[in-house]
Design brief:
The protein is an alpha/beta fold. It has a single domain, classed as Rossmann fold, CATH 3.40.50. It has eight helices and eleven strands. The strands form two sheets. Strands 5-4-6-7-3-8-9-10-11 form a nine-stranded mixed sheet, sandwiched between helices. The protein has a two-stranded antiparallel sheet with strand order 1-2. Strand 9 (196-206) and strand 10 form a beta hairpin. Helix 5 (99-107) crosses helix 8 (141-157). It is globular and about 50 Å long.
Length: 235
């Protein structure tokens, strides 16, 4: 990859966050959105796709392994996002797919997944929710690593900028083997202090890029989605 600091950027569309990331993700990179339950990972991933459509005319694909499409469509109306309309306009595709079908596509070099998702609507952004479901198909760490490499190779051939939702406890700071394989990592936190919880975000890794090292507050707002506050402290 060329020097990422000077590479073309793909903004998240979230005010304050892109500035903290030197403009956003690197074009055609593969990135993790990692966090525990309730941290806002799926909302972030869909907002990334919606902002791409609305603000930059970049179409998107959302591959979901676990959540049903109809539930996603209904839930995201809370943020004013009409996913069905974007689908009808061929700007977005939400695809319920099993990890096993993705594995078949990767190892058989099945072009159907590519042409049925990214190529058909000329997508530039892809989100996969969640990478954990795919990783569970492989029994050993060596097999997982090989599977990730092959999956990433397929995704890079699509010419898209990818977000992988990853479920793990970022507060324990143990990380994941995927941390070494992806180009960027955003960690979403859902801290508990006393009897309340506070959400936050950290730009943990952004390969070859100058970025903020601060953990700053994040809020999930009705009719908007994710909002961040880079100048504020978490507590």
């Amino acid at each position: 990859m060329k020097n990422a600091y000077y590479a073309e950027r793909v903004p998240t569309g979230i005010k304050g966050l892109d500035e903290a990331m030197s403009g956003g993700f690197v074009r055609d990179s593969i990135n993790l959105i990692a966090g525990g339950p309730g941290s806002g990972k799926s909302i972030f991933a869909l907002q990334y796709l919606i902002k791409g459509i609305v603000e930059r005319n970049e179409h998107g694909v959302y591959l979901t392994f676990e959540e049903r499409r109809d539930k996603l469509v209904q839930y995201m109306k809370n943020f004013g996002w009409d996913l069905e309309k974007f689908e009808k306009d061929n700007k977005l595709r939400i695809i319920e797919i099993s990890p096993k079908d993705v594995r078949k596509a990767v190892y058989n070099k099945n072009l159907g997944l590519k042409y049925g998702t990214a190529r058909y609507i000329k997508a530039k952004r892809v989100a996969i929710d969640s990478i954990n479901a795919y990783s569970l198909l492989f029994p050993t760490e060596v097999a997982k690593r090989e599977a990730h490499v092959n999956l990433f190779e397929m995704l890079r051939s699509w010419g898209v900028t990818v977000l992988l939702v990853a479920e793990y406890d970022v507060e324990e700071d143990k990380g994941s083997p995927l941390d070494f394989e992806v180009d960027g990592i955003l960690r979403l936190y859902n801290f508990k202090k006393g009897d309340t919880r506070t959400r936050a975000i950290e730009i943990y890794k952004l390969r070859g890029s100058k970025h903020s090292t601060k953990t700053f507050p994040l809020e999930i707002v009705d009719k908007e989605g994710i909002r961040v506050y880079p100048e504020q402290n978490v507590f």
